[in-house]
Design goal:
Blueprint (H helix, E strand, L loop, with lengths): L1 E9 L5 E11 L2 E4 L6 H9 L1 E6 L3 H8 L7 E3 L6 E3 L4 E11 L6 E11 L8 H14 L6 H18 L2 H22 L1
Antiparallel strand pairs: 1-2, 1-4, 2-3, 3-8, 4-7, 5-6, 7-8
Helix pairs in contact: 2-3, 2-5, 3-4, 3-5
This protein binds flavin mononucleotide (FMN).
Flavin mononucleotide (FMN) binds next to strand 2, helix 1, helix 2 and helix 3.
């Protein structure tokens, strides 16, 4: 099963980095698959640790994809690392094995500590819309514009019916990027 999470890592100077990643989960253990080049990959190879943040504030996902990476972090408990303050739960992991690949290496990680911080309060269709739109935008240069536009039109239906203020804010950031991309593509 793949779960959409925010992975936080840090380099040897302690500088934190966060990125949305679809991780392959097996209980608390997981495989992280970063496409090269990737700061997450570099940091994980350097520090051998990461934090998997389970988070329902979709502004973090949309924010990272649109250049807003400055979200509050706190110190991890059992590893050298940092936890997203708004995470509902997090798992601290250690890198145990790498399956190298020129495009997308597989980083096998084992859980060393998991903590819950706030309850899960239910599914929301607008959150799904924001996640899917953020993935489309992270692939803007690899997908045909017509496919992106038709998928956004579909995702907008759930968004408009069910969004709260966080989802609307995240959606607006993503649409600004798409509008700019469209304007550049047609000029
Ligand atoms: C929901 C979601 C899931 C993503 N999953 C992955 C992933 O599994 N691997 C990856 O390389 N990028 C993924 N991305 C895109 C990265 O977050 C983005 O390209 C990021 O900048 C990764 O590079 P970095 O490690 O240098 O930050 C995902 C984006 C979103 C919105």
């Amino acid at each position: 099963m793949i779960k959409e999470t925010i992975v936080s890592t840090q380099n040897s100077s302690g500088l934190a980095h966060i990125a949305p990643m679809g991780i392959h989960v097996n209980g608390d253990d997981c495989i992280i698959l970063p496409f090269r080049p990737s700061t997450t990959l570099n940091n994980l190879l350097e520090s051998k640790t990461a934090v998997i943040n389970y988070c329902d504030d979709v502004r973090i996902f949309a924010g990272c994809i649109t250049g807003r990476r400055d979200w509050p972090l706190t110190i991890a408990e059992k590893i050298n690392g940092q936890v997203l303050q708004c995470a509902l739960a997090h798992t601290e992991v250690e890198l145990v094995r790498i399956e190298d690949d020129p495009a997308r290496p597989k980083l096998f990680c084992k859980a060393v500590h998991t903590a819950n911080h706030a309850p899960f309060t239910g599914f929301n269709r607008a959150q799904y819309s924001v996640l899917e739109a953020a993935i489309l935008i992270s692939r803007l240069n690899r997908l045909p514009l017509a496919k992106i536009e038709s998928e956004i039109d579909y995702l907008r239906i759930g968004l408009e019916k069910t969004a709260g203020s966080r989802e609307l804010e995240a959606w607006a950031w993503l649409m600004t990027v798409i509008d700019k991309f469209k304007a550049e593509a047609t000029s």
